[in-house]
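Internal tracking record. Fields below are filled automatically when a chain is submitted to the structure queue. Please do not edit lines marked as system-generated. If the sequence contains nonstandard residues, flag them in the REMARKS field before resubmitting.
Queue: standard
Priority: normal
Entity type: single polypeptide chain
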Amino acid sequence: MSEQDYFVHETAVVDDGCTIGKGTKIWHFSHIMPNCELGEKCNIGQNVVVSPNVKLGSNVKVQNNVSIYTGVTCEDDVFLGPSMVFTNVINPRSAINRRGEYASTIVKKGASIGANATIVCGNDIGEYAFIGAGAVVTKDVPAFALLVGNPAKQIGWVGEYGHRLQFDEEGEAICPESKQEYQLVDNKVIRIK
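SYSTEM-GENERATED OUTPUT FOLLOWS
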């Protein structure tokens, strides 16, 4: 792919072996390390580090001051808020090399992670889940779940447009913006229309 298909600010560094999709923008002082895959139309904010072998889908929005460590995969349409944090080792020690122990974390399609939130490695974030600002995620997050706090606790459900869903006695909800319909069954949300 030619460099004209995507934008890299003159202060950013893109190492060899990276694949960068058409329309992606990489802004000031960011570093894309070797063998990363960035999909189309991603936006990589200022002072972002994408570690080796990280995969980002298309239309991933990474706000300023985010480090995406080896072991993290973000599917399409993921939003990573300013200064949110991923970890990649459960028990880091400066004097002990644990590079072979990186835990994987998958952020599924359409999920949003708020500013200053922390995702402890090895915990996947479900499709369209919404992690509130400052939350500390210590376990897997179901699709469409709304989590806040430290440690993060689920306080409800959201739809694809990010609005909180209010389920009726039949377990049905309608998004106030999109009018999409959702069903809650056995503590799982699915979109039905």
